Amino acid sequence: MIKLIAAVCMLVDHIGYIFFPEQLIWRLIGRISMPLFAYSIARGYEYSRQKNTIPRYVKKLAAFAAVSQLPYSLMAGNRWNIGLTWLFSLLLLISIDHEDRSRLVKGIEVMAILAAAYLLNIDYGIYGVLMPLAMRQRKYYNMFLSVVVLWAVYTLMNGIAGLIQIASCAAVPILYAVVPQDSRIRLPKYFYYVFYPAHILLLVILKQII
User: Fold this and answer.
1) pLDDT confidence bin for 210, thresholds 50/70/90
2) Distance from C-alpha of 30 to C-alpha of 8, rounded to nearest angstrom
3) What distance in Å separates the CA atoms of residue 208 and residue 210, rounded to the nearest whole number?
């Protein structure tokens, strides 16, 4: 159910981006999707960690980012898609949890990952890379506080353009309400990996037709 809500919010966001860029409401609704997907990334990482399948998860996200780049470029121009952001997030979580590395090495790795995210100007930047770490919190008030802090930093880095991202904080109360019911609606395993590039491509084509 969480991924379904995130996918719907993302679809609304992209419809607004392509067809109604002057109407803010579409983008506000869309801000909710990224933290929900970040929660799914963190949960997927924990599952892969328990099953010892993290390398497979890394490859899957890398393939997803590569496949999604062309459709995303057609929509947003010369920008990286969110798949690369999630890949950086996954590498960050792996580094933080690596038991055989010292704090110094982990610190260097984390700074290198964040610096690369900043220099490559990936989607949502450092804010996006850190979001799965924030959504990994076990207590919802800690999660909400982390998201608010990230929003504040994002706004400081992006100015008034970052204010719209305050709507992303709504993802936490949504999770609080939905997580207990999440198993009631299960999407196919690779639904999001297909839906993301497919819906962008369809929207771009529709824009050209009309």
Assistant:
1) confident
2) 8
3) 6
